[in-house]
Each structure stands twice: as C-alpha cells, then as structure tokens.
C-alpha cells in the first residue's frame, strides 16, 4: 500500500512540475519570441510630401437652378382641343401657335355680328345725311350712332374670344412634355405644357450672413451638378436679395450661367463655389493623411529614426543587421578582395532595415480642395506625411516606406 502511494505521489509531482515548467518557463519564452518577432517587423506605410500651395478663399453653398423665364401654358378660356402644333422637347420661337381650341361657334357668331355692324353703319350714314337736310331729328342720329358702336363692340368681343382659343408661345424656349390630345376638353387655367427659356439660366443659393459681405456683384462662381459630374459650369453673381432670412440667417444670391447645350434644367440642385478674397498660402497634405478622433485631428509624420525613442524590445530586422555587418566587413577587407556586400551589389533601400519612425502630431485643419486639405498648424512644407497604414502605427514606432502601392487620388482613378 505504501509503495502504491509513493508511485501516485511521484506521478502527481511530475505532472505538477511539468505544468509549472510550462507556465513559468516555456510559455513566457514563447510569448517573448512572438512579441520580439512582431516588434522586429516594422509596418509598411506610404508617404507623400507636404507642399505649399496658394488657394483663393472659397464659399460653398447648395443652390437651385431656375429658368430666367418659365411658364406652364394654359388657355384663358375652356374648350375642346382642335389641334396641337408641337411635340415634347421642341425648341419653339416666340409667337408660335402651340394649341388651337375649337372656335367654330365663335366664328359663326363673329360673322353674324359683322353683318349687324355693317347694317348699323349703313343706317348711321343714312341718318347723318337726313340730319344735315333737317329731315330727321338729332335723336334719330344718336340712336343710329349707339347701334353702330354696340355692333362694333360685339365684333371685338367675339374676336377676342377667338384669339383666346389659340395658345401661343409668349417667348422663345423649350417645350416640356405634352399632356393634351385632340378632342380633349381643357378647362380654363389648366396647364397644357411647360415652356422654359434655358439659355442663359439662373441658380439661386443662400450664403451665411457672415459671408455675404465678402461677395460682390460680378464675382465668378463655379457650379457642379450630379447629372454631369465631369463638367463645371461657370458664371457670375448678378443679383442679391434685399433681406436676410430671419429663420436661417442667410442671404439668397443669384448667379447667371451659360447653358448653350441646355443640359442645366430648372429644379436641379448644384454645388456652388464662389471665390472671395485674395489668394493665401497653405501647407497642404492628402486628405488620407489626416486621422480624425474625439481627441483632435492628427497627422502621422515619417521622421528619421535616431534610435533614441525605440523601445528596449525593438530589434533590428535581419536585413538591417546583414547590411550593417556587410558595411563593417567591407571596411576590414584586404585590398584585392571583394566583400560580401560588393559581391551581392548594393542593396535596395527597402532591404536596409527601418530608417524612419512614425511621429504623431495633432494639427489644426483648414480648407480643402479636391483630395488635399490645408494644415494650419502642426506640419511644415517638405515633411513626409503618412498617407496609408496609420492603423498599424504606435508613436515613435519604426516604419518601412513603400510608395510603389501608393493610393491613387480620385482624379487619377479611371472612370467606369
């Protein structure tokens, strides 16, 4: 029995000893090796140089395209459509007949009224001659005059009604979608078709009260619309409202744009950019270089790695050690013998180990243009800012720069 207890005790002791060795010796060694490998491999990033650019201050707004002249044509009097003389999308000239309502009843009435007018004029002439000879009284002539004038007014009234049966273009422009057919009854005032004058065209947009004083009549504007993202439409400020909205504290401005091919249509919204003020000099970086957080905006800058800020566990990569050893051997090699570095040739920069470290700087961001943003404080022109790979970085950690796979700007990407 005692022997059995001794064997069991030895087994338990060996198991506990192995477990202790695994936890206290083997496991820490594996963790140290893993961390050492992870620390030895510097993350790869891309960089771009911060540069100085001159930008004109801009004011941005969202505007609505409006036709200089636009109207939904409607008849002044109800009637049946006898015929129409346009198709959807036609360009028409001022005065062109577009829709003719049935006026047969009015034309018959006009003929009767003209006959009455003719009889009244004959009677008036007869009474005038008789009055001159004293054959009739002045009252008879006055009655004949009233009858003639009444008949003439009746003719004019029916003629006006006939004119109202014709719908003409009040100005030159482009016709919208046709919504009437022959034989259709159209009530008074019901819209038949839209007519818009498209060239030139307006865009109305609000600007903050604080910025309104920096914009003058004649200032140039640029407009971009979603329907034609590849184009920029240019124009000038031509009018401004006489009051500031008490609800939004904005002032509405109006710009006039050229629209020769008539691609800008009323109702479109556009991104409006107004140049205001004198050009200013900014230090600019790609937008991808700026990281935004609740603690502030920051930019990672690639600076020379002097080794002072490197953590104790950081180890040079094998390539770096090999390069340093090759340099040492090259200096000690006797004359006539080529060192290993000479035999292999000069190694590329990417194989000589980390030479740069990442330095995080909090910055003050300014205006932006396209894919670049101005940095008002924190970065100087000529410094290399990191544009990709920021998520892998720690302050003062070594980095490898590889710009062969640099992210392309939106303007460089091919369009589908």
UniProtKB/TrEMBL annotation:
Stretches with biased composition (Basic and acidic residues): 306-317, 344-362, 403-416
Domain (Multidrug resistance protein MdtA-like alpha-helical hairpin) ranges: 106-164
Organism from which the protein derives: Methyloligella halotolerans
Residues annotated as domain CusB-like beta-barrel: 200-276
Recorded family membership: Belongs to the membrane fusion protein (MFP) (TC 8.A.1) family.
Bias type Low complexity, positions: 321-336
A GO cellular component annotation in the UniProt record: efflux pump complex
Protein name: Putative efflux pump periplasmic linker TtgA
């Amino acid at each position: 029995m005692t022997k059995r207890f001794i064997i069991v005790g030895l087994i338990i002791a060996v198991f506990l000893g192995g477990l202790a060795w695994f936890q206290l010796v083997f496991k820490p060694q594996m963790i140290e090796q893993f961390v050492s490998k992870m620390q030895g491999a510097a993350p790869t990033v891309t960089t771009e140089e911060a540069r100085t650019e001159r930008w004109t201050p801009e004011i941005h707004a969202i505007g609505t395209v409006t036709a200089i002249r636009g109207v939904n044509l409607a008849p002044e009097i109800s009637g049946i459509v006898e015929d129409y003389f346009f198709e959807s999308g036609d360009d028409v000239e001022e005065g062109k007949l577009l829709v003719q309502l049935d006026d047969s009843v009015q034309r018959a009435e006009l003929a009767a009224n003209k006959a009455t007018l003719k009889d009244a004029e004959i009677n008036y002439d007869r009474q005038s001659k008789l009055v001159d000879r004293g054959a009739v009284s002045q009252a008879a002539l006055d009655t004949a005059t009233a009858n003639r004038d009444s008949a003439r007014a009746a003719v004019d009234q029916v003629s006006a009604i006939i004119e109202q049966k014709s719908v003409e273009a009040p100005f030159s422009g482009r016709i919208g979608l046709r919504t009437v057919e022959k034989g259709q009854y159209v009530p008074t005032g019901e819209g038949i078709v839209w007519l818009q004058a498209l060239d030139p065209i307006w865009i109305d947009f609000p600007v903050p009260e604080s910025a309104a004083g920096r914009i003058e009549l004649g200032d140039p504007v640029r407009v971009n619309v979603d329907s034609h993202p590849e184009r920029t439409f240019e124009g000038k400020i031509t009018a401004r409202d006489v009051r500031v909205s008490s609800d939004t504290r904005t002032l509405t401005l109006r710009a006039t744009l050229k629209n020769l091919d008539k691609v800008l249509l009323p109702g479109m919204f556009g991104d409006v950019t107004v140049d205001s003020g004198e050009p200013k000099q900014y230090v600019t970086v790609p937008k991808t270089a700026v990281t935004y957080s609740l603690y502030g905006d920051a930019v990672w800058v690639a600076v020379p790695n002097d080794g002072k800020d490197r953590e104790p566990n950081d180890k040079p990569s094998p390539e770096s050690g090999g390069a340093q050893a090759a340099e040492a051997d090259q200096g000690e090699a006797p004359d006539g013998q080529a060192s290993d570095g000479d035999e292999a040739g000069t190694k590329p920069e990417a194989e000589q180990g980390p030479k740069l470290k990442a330095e995080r700087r909090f910055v003050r961001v300014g205006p932006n243009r396209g894919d670049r943003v101005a940095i008002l404080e924190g970065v100087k022109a000529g410094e290399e800012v990191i544009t990709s790979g920021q998520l892998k970085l720690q302050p003062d950690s070594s980095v490898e720069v590889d710009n062969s796979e640099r992210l392309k700007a939106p303007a460089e990407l091919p369009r589908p």
